[in-house]
Amino acid sequence: MADEIRVERWGSGDRDAVLIHGLGNSSESWWEVGPALADRGYSVHAVDLPGHGRSAALVDYSVESLVDAVVGAVPTKPELAIGHSLGGLVLAHALDRLAPRLAVFEDPAWTVAIAPEVVEAFRAQKKWTIDDVNRTYPRWSD
User: Fold this and answer.
1) pTM score of the predicted model
2) What DSSP line would sit under the chain, residue for residue?
3) CATH at 16
4) How many other C-beta atoms lie within 10 A of the C-beta of residue 92?
5) pLDDT digits (tens, 9 = 90+) for 119-134
6) Is residue 135 in a domain?
7) How many domains does one find in the chain?
8) Are 105 and 83 in contact (CB under 8 A)?
9) Which residue segment(s) compose the domain that 57 sits in?
10) How many C-alpha atoms does 73 have within 13 Å on its Cβ side?
């Protein structure tokens, strides 16, 4: 699985930092945080979760499969790990295996039962065009 997970990297410091993005995002969401941490001496590893960014999709999604993907793609025992939203949920479930010295959870998601119609709405968004995004979120910049 690790070969199918894309990891964006910044810096070459002697301390590792792992960044895990939220649902519908990618490693690109860390475009400011990654370089800022690299400037502070970190070797930064920002994953594209399965089915996000340039990482391959999974056949079946579960928190465990996302944890397996992340742990297989980044160094264990990083100095710092940050998880945002879904990434926070993944990080919480990966703590015993990833073993970061410091874990930061930014607006973490919770594991909840989701109604099937909500799941289908999320799946439909995967096929949106840029016009669909602009229509739905007119305040977002290009």
Assistant:
1) 0.78
2) -GGGS-EEEE---SEEEEEE--TT--GGGGTTHHHHHHHTTEEEEEE--TTSTTSPPPSS--HHHHHHHHHHHS-SS-SEEEEETHHHHHHHHHHHHH--SEEEEES--------HHHHHHHHHHTT--HHHHHHH-TTS--
3) 3.40.50.1820
4) 17
5) 677 677 778 888 888 8
6) no
7) 1
8) yes
9) 2-112
10) 27
Residue 28 is which amino acid? Answer: E
What residue type is assigned to position 34 of the chain?
G
- The rounded distance, in Å, linking the Cα atoms of 131 and 120 is 20
Contact 70, 98 (CB under 8 A): yes
Average pLDDT, rounded, for the chain: 89
The span from the CA of 36 to the CA of 10, in Å, is 9
The angle at the Cα of 127, spanning 29 to 133, to the nearest 5 degrees, equals: 55
| Domain membership flag for residue 122 | no
Tens digits of per-residue pLDDT, 5-37?
Answer: 999 999 999 999 999 999 989 999 999 999 999
Report the phi/psi class of residue 3: left, alpha or beta, with left for phi > 0 and alpha for psi in -120 to 50.
alpha
The label of the residue with tokens 């499969």 reads 65
Contact status, residue 68 vs residue 47, Cβ threshold 8 Å:
no
